[in-house]
Amino acid sequence: MTGKTVKLTVGQALVRYLINQHTEIDGERVPLFAGVFGIFGHGNVTCLSEALEQVQDVLPTWRGQNEQSMALAAIGYGKAKLRRQIMIATTSVGPGATNMVTAAGVAHANRLPVLLLSGDTYNNRLPDPVLQQVEHFGDPSTTVNDSFRAVSRYWDRITHPAQILSSLPQAVATMLDPADCGPAFIGLPQDIQEIAYDYPETFFEPTLWTIPRPRPDRDQVAAAAALLKTAKKPLIISGGGVRYSGAEAELAEFALARGIPIAETIAGKGAVTHDHPAYVGAIGIEGTDAAKELAETADVVIAVGTRLQDFTTGSWTTFAPDAAFINVNAARFDARKHRALPVVGDARESLAELDAAMGDWKCEEARMTDARRLYADWNAMLDEGQAPTNAAVPSYAQVIGVVNKVARPEDTMVTAAGGLPGETVKNWRVKAPNTFDCEFGFSCMGYEIAGAWGHAMAKGGDGVPIVMVGDGSYMMMNSDIYSSVLSGHKMIVVVCDNGGFGVINRLQTGMGVPGFNNLLKDARVVNKDDPLHVDFAKHAEAMGALARHCESLADLETAMEWALTTDRTTVISIHSDAYTWTPGGADWYVGVPEINERESIKEARKGQEAFRAKQRQGI
User: Which of 20, 94, 186, 425 pairs with 546 at a CA distance of 20 to 30 A?
Assistant: First the structure.
């Protein structure tokens, strides 16, 4: 090998490379990798942890309680940083690795960067089978780390020390590519981590990474402009790619200048504020009636930075059969969906070039007038649904209304899975851009508290994450309340206890099946008339958090005001209604038995058949 070299183990070289990668955020040079979430076991403690311990002042390592939740926290951090900085999660081989697979699915579905480093079994196989090894009789090279292949954008197993020279730069480039962004996985066999090798010093030179902004093809822009100029009733769908591109202002200005209403996806919520003059709310199954009606009448739809998931499209029933689509997306795969006219490129740059190609065209004022009338009607409905009543137990909408009222513009709402995504997407009024995180690409129960720990790190005290979580998700994963207390990263957690899995019970009973195994009262419990409710406040206090249980909306408002003043993670619990939901939004394609003797299921099947007849064909 020519040139100067330095002899390091694979673990030491990997860590030295990572600490020398940098990026720029708002003109400031910062580390690309902001920290590590780690649980050490025999697969990563003797070599990788040795290397991390030496650099803990520049690359801090945070100890989590569960490998999945650590990686979810890393994902929350990356989301809060708009994919400009990356966190690392490391685990040992075996169950620690498989615990992280779910989090990798979250990152993959949501196109979010996270670097996953897992120990692996011995490359030389001399001590096989080792502790926690799963043996494959016909393929001894297979380990549990192969399960990451399905949920990684970049996957590699290092079997020779020199391989990190090519693998690590490719992993970083993948995580920073707007089109390919997602999790990168590196498997590290235990006997490879320890090997010393003469690495070229140039490999460790400080490197400044920038996120590319691919410009669209001129012909694609011209074709999109020509199509948009034919529109009488256009509609913009703003996706998460708008936020990650930093195209919020450009999108808002384009919409106002061209007279086109803006609807948004769940991932895109927060690119503009609730009171923006072109905004009509979220679109799709958890969307507003205003966005739904505008989508049903749209002749040209401009989808910017969205993968057009079924919750956005109402399983492709929300649009007229002859509606034309212009898909602006950095990923060719997304831009080509549903016979769309593709504009492959960065959202900000593509919008600027499309705007320049539009000349003085503007949609007739009637379109925006209709949009504002429909949105005003929707907001009036929200006001009515959030108003206090004499009901014994408040609805999600009422609870969200109180929390939203007290929240400051700089606070970030975090939720995922269950009934709260739909209820927050509809009811949460965003006060400042990029202060809303609903993980719904993978709909991962357990993301809420873990993801908020990452948000708290990223925010650095500039506001707090406010977690809204149901009792079901809380019971699934809550240990990062303890993590946040240990690390000093404050969050506010509002636990809405509706006695089980409320929203899936709604779907089950709505499709004709009697309530079964979702609400606690419908499960195999000792006392169905009065099943045990967890004392979430006491549980949180046992992990070092401050906590209160609320009996009313007035109690909740007082508790939220108090929570903003506390010095650590604070948990507030309140009982909520499992049967009252905010109306509105599109329908959803779900499986209903084709043959059944129950009249309720027969009726549900008829409804689904009528619904499916409206589906737009093609992918």
Answer: 425
